[in-house]
Design goal:
mainly alpha; about 65% helix; elongated
Length: about 45
């Protein structure tokens, strides 16, 4: 049985920018959403 490597995605600039910029943006968005919902639930 010949062992063949699975095809892998290429690493280029858009992929790096997506990882470096996309993950912090997603985390920041979630923090913003949860902080807004918490602020709206505080007693007046």
């Amino acid at each position: 049985m010949p062992t063949q490597d699975e095809p892998r995605g290429k690493v280029d600039l858009p992929a790096i920018l997506y990882i470096v910029g996309g993950i912090p943006a997603l985390v920041g968005f979630l923090v913003l959403v949860f902080s807004l919902t918490r602020a709206c639930n505080l007693p007046a």
